[in-house]
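Pinned message: reference record for Fe2OG dioxygenase domain-containing protein
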Amino acid sequence: MPKRPITSYFTAAPSKKPKLSLHSDLPPSTHPSYPFPIACLPPSLELSSTKPVEKDNNEKDTNEKDTNEKDTSGENANEKDTNEKVPNEKAPNEAPEASKTTNATKPPTQEEIPPTAITHKQDLSILHYHPFLHTSLSKELFLFLRKQLPFYRVEYRIARAGVETNVKTPRYTSLFGVDAISYFHPHSGELLDTKSKHPVPPDRYRCSPRPVPQCVEMLRQYVAKRTGCSYNFVLINYYADGNDSISYHSDDERFLGENPAIASLSLGSRRDFLMKHKTVPALTHTFPLPSGDLLLMRSTTQSKWLHSIPKRSSSSSTAGDSTASWAGGGRINITFRNALERGGTENYYCYNIGSGPVYRWDDVSGKMVLKA
Ligand SMILES: O=C(O)CCC(=O)C(=O)O
Ligand SMILES: [Fe+2]
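Predicted structure (tokens):
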């Protein structure tokens, strides 16, 4: 099918809200573990891009901390001096990539913008791709994924100080993938053992692992290529508004191996990503992440630091954020991880899918609704 420009997918409707065409020539991805078929990426969302990155004048340069924010730590002082641009820096296990140069007379494409290395704070090693996807692509992807993916509002019980407590996850979550000891047959979707290539024993997992659907798989492959790391899990968070959050934690589970590389892509409304050192309280760092940014967390970032997305007030939520009009305060975060052991699969499906009902985005009411 010939490529169509993004604009051809919008009708000249009287409504100011653009309507995204979900048309793709490919049939939707299906699997017995999916609650409904998941559409394939429309051609307008082709990820690899030669399009120059547009500069949105309404948006502040979010590489720097919002000056309205209280900064008691002095954490961002001299960041411009200490953060380096690292064209073609190699992450662990990274495949060699052709070197790219930026033509000074032409705005760079998203693939030509080198990430910034945040390595000047003790035990912290992050590559910040600002942006990873250009704004219009991140917008289309946000609208597409919010509409097409199944989401959950997981509740679980844990013992806190010896008392059984019910925890309600304060955001929507979704998940695809399986750990390294198993894989899905690319055509039948059957779960196979990595070593023997035979079907996995039925008691290997208590959950039903889900293969990555085409629309997310395209993204997984693209992120793997640009970050030089491999990932077998895709975890998706949807923060509906400033009330949704994730509290301080680190993704340092044993099943991810030592010093895991985790890529984290932001789509939609800007939210602050807060970090603090586990044992040196004065050490903190804040990324105000706009749509299209990606953080590649590496080395001791998980073992030594915590991160969170705090709740925020609705007034602070839209200030200076031009995505507010199309994201309506919503934000999708996608993390790409590599789990080495069976325990990763059990853990991730338990906490990101759970056993509750499925939600799906509804364009009419403009919110997630329970699927009957
Ligand atoms: O939403 C984010 O940027 C962070 C999500 C996160 O930390 C996680 O899912 O483990
Ligand atoms: Fe995390």
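Pinned by admin. Summary line: Residues 4-19, 57-81, 88-102 have pLDDT under 50 and may be disordered.
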